[in-house]
Amino acid sequence: MTERPFPPLGVFPYPRIVGWVSTVKCNLKCVHCYPSSGAVKAEELTTEESKACITEFSSVGIKVIFMSGGEPLLKKDLLELIKHGTNEGITMFLCTNATLLSEKNVHLLKEAGLQRVFVGFEGVNSETVDRFSGVKGTLERKIEGIKRSIAAGLPVSIDFVGTKYNYAELEDVIALARKLGVSGFSLKRFVPTGRGRDNMDELWVEPVKYQEVINAYCSHVLNPDGMDFGAHEPLVTGRLTELKPMKFYTSTCPIGMWCGISPRGEVLPCPMLPIPLGNMKEDSLKGIWENSPFVAKLKDKNALKGRCGTCELRYNCGGCRATAYALSGDCLAEDPNCWKVGARTC
Length: 346
Ligand code: SF4
Ligand code: SF4
Description:
Blueprint: E1 17-21, H1 47-59, E2 64-68, H2 78-87, E3 91-96, H3 103-112, E4 116-120, H4 126-133, H5 138-151, E5 156-161, H6 170-180, E6 184-188, H7 195-198, H8 200-203, H9 207-222, E7 228-232, H10 234-243, E8 258-261, E9 266-268, E10 278-279, H11 285-290, H12 293-299, H13 306-310, H14 321-328
Parallel strand pairs: 1-2, 1-8, 2-3, 3-4, 4-5, 5-6, 6-7
Antiparallel strand pairs: 8-9, 9-10
């Protein structure tokens, strides 16, 4: 199986990436989980419906699908969907907690055409990770899963969601990632939605402290030393613009370039923004996207309000629209996680 690098995305009228919350079933119960996953049952697309969605994604030019959840390895049709996406010419990625990456699973995933595994990794301390996941022994199982994956030739990236629980372990997680031989590392925004909203007081990092986390992370982005550092955090590109001005840093908020799909087929502007634009069971992605001026509004940095609206960094950052919505009910409001905006008042 030849590895497909992250494909060039270009500028197109439809999303190029899908973040598919394919299930809310999970063997863990993480405190920050935005789909509130766990030992729960919820309506999900059938295999045939899911395959039809993938075929349509391919027809509008979707290049990448992140199969996420919940824990997608609990989905009985996961391999079939990965194979189908691969046959449709789509780069298939898996977002997993890594605890179910058995020897057998990593080989089956690779055979199905999976290109990369993204592992949510919250700390290096068993106590931190167990507290985060609600299940004892999670850290060890994650590490074993990562090792198996790499040994099977399936590259791994680590996604680190910065919260009050774990931001102090960022440097240690980066060091462990290097030791394990992972290929990529990404700082991800904690969005207080779903269970994350319920546990927000325990998790939210106040803006001034968060600025320190962003600064520390940016120094790795600027001096990567062999590892590929990315971000799903607009404040990173905003800060990079200040630290090392370049012609243009594109905001790491991919709104407009990606969309979310909920387990029951709803199309969302982003998986963490629970505002359905339509449902794949009733309409096509093309139709939903074309009839949604809302997405264009979300992309328009000149439509932002509050401090984001006047900020000199709004084209490079623009804040996280999902966080703004979660805390104010207005997607265009200023980003309450930003130190330029100030301490939380809600
Ligand atoms: S709104 Fe926030 S969570 Fe959604 S894509 Fe943008 S940065 Fe990511
Ligand atoms: S005020 Fe808004 S646009 Fe400016 S840096 Fe903060 S989050 Fe980004």
